[in-house]
Amino acid sequence: MGKGRKEALAPFGELSEGYLRAWLTEHSPNGSCIWGLNYWGITMMLRRLRDKTGLACNPHTFRRSFAVLLRKAGVDCLTIRDLGRWESVSMVERYTRSFGFADAMKFYKGPLG
Hints:
6 helices, single chain, mainly alpha, 55% helix, 113 residues
């Protein structure tokens, strides 16, 4: 389930698959939840992580970081919108405000090479 309790797909690559397969060889999930965590279990895990690291650990921060990292890697806003399931490009632009001129220049190729 995504933001607003909307059903959504999530990007899942080969690296994540490898980690999940490795974890599953050592653990036996119960029922439909692989890690045995419900909403409150995840909330508590994120709070402990925040307390241990001093960093914001919540879904909003993860979504914003996802968008900013993709943007800094040169991914366009339409693609980020689709991957992150945002409803508009303006939301992606708002999330990625920290992407500035210096970041954009890394992808600029002048007409003379």
